Known about the structure:
This protein has helices at residues 11-14, 32-41, 55-70, 90-99, 113-121, 133-141, 163-171, 187-196, 205-208, 217-225, 246-251, 265-272, 302-318; strands at residues 21-23, 44-48, 79-84, 104-108, 125-130, 146-150, 156-157, 178-181, 200-203, 231-234, 242-245. It is of the alpha/beta class. β10 and β11 (242-245) form a beta hairpin.
Amino acid sequence: MKASHKSRLPAGIASRLRLPLIVAPMFSVSGVDLVTTVCRSGAIGAFPTANARSIDELDHWLTRIEHDLAKLDRQAAPHCPNLIIRQPRFKDDLACLVRHKAQIVITSMGSPAAATEPLHEIGCLVFADVASLRHAAKAIEAGADGLILLTAGAGGHTGWANPFAFVRAVRTMFDGPIVLAGGIADGVSLAAARLLGCDLAYMGTRFIATRESMASDAYRQMLVDSTLDDVMLTRAFSGLNANMLRPSILAAGLEPSKLDESVPEARAQQQFAGNNSEGPRRWIDLWSAGHSVSGVRSIVGAAELVEEIARQYEAALATD
């Protein structure tokens, strides 16, 4: 990995990366094809374990990813499952990741405390999603090896903090790997994240518009057609702040200005969560995007996109 600043990642991970990049785990978007293509290209491919519809399917996904990456004549970048702490399948998903000896796991939507011990026993790094200094301190206390700072501008469930202030504040209390999530659109912003003191950055929105993602053609095209002015921050669909595409809300027959922003989380789950929902389904019919959507200009292959970002990143470092 080329970088102008020393990485805090273990050498066995850093040496396998062409870019200090995690392609973010995205609901109903990140699957086997996207993960394996990204890892072969030199970035970390992540996916929510909940995207697999059952434990058996999760086991199958992990087996396929491991098999596909083992066929290379060089070490691929690691893949990275994302465990949602507050979901019914958490314990079963965790046990599956332990059986597969995952190398890196991202925890989100709750403290990583329940996952750190069994994952550390297999030598796995645990990176915890945090959106505040209080949550960062709790994740550090729970034994997280790295922190993913969810900042304003991230797609889907998002943070509120300014990335410059958040990264610098966390760096005073944590000397491990930091990942910046939110607003990373290209290699230039990736280089800026490294200069700021981060070891990796998330990029999600641009990879939704790749041919390997599980997004629909209509979703991909809407990303191409949208700008950051089309991104709307709302609590209406999950009870939590999420950045969603206003055009998808309109296409689902809803009026963005009349959404219930005071809806409790449980009620939002009932209305928008799944097959028995009363309204359009979030992530399926209602689509998310981050502020970096302005950087989506075409539908491309994931390997091609990694290559483009790498060229931009290396050029930015050369002028550092």
